[in-house]
């Protein structure tokens, strides 16, 4: 047992504001579910909800306490932030610069590995077709047609995202993924260095996928990225970063 009991867990949840009179309603509901979970294990818990565009958040909004271990966890959402093809001063770079200024002990970055963010429609349509075909094929091979969760996900997530990629332009197109190699360049340019993957964890994940999941799922490495794919196509990429010493001075 830890002397003094479990440490306090503080989480700041960030989401885009919803329309209506409760702009932070969705992220606040997440906080309530987390609070119930922490109570089950007697973990002191504090949750702060922020409903703003990521690029408009300031350091003061986050209420950082320098005596705590700080982790920034961003899974597959940075690709929804406008890039320099929409706004001259890239909001993506602004968010990465804010994360660097926070000086986290660890920045966990999960990226949707997409190549359908080109302004040229035909190219974007073709790349989106390849991407979403892989996702639907994955469901077809692993879930029955009548599965309600599958129907919900296909109709409410995949169909919505595909429609946004194909039918929308300018600020209305919010699905703007980049490849993990493009994110590599952005993160390095913003003043981060990658943390090597724990090879024991990678081995455990690979063995689990091989023994318990469909044979067409894959887990690979490229540099310090862990790549998750289907039938040889990389769908998601995950890596960990820290600010360089020079960048936090």
TrEMBL record:
PROSITE patterns listed in its UniProt record? GRAS
Arranged from A to Z, the UniProt key words for this protein are: Transcription, Transcription regulation
Annotated region (SAW), positions in chain: 167-242
Q: Where is this region: Leucine repeat II (LRII)?
A: 29-61
- What InterPro entries does UniProt report for this protein, alphabetically? TF_GRAS
Report the Pfam families cross-referenced here. Answer: GRAS
Question: Which family does the UniProt entry place this protein in?
Answer: Belongs to the GRAS family.
Q: What is this protein called?
A: Putative ovule protein
Organism of origin: Solanum chacoense (Chaco potato)
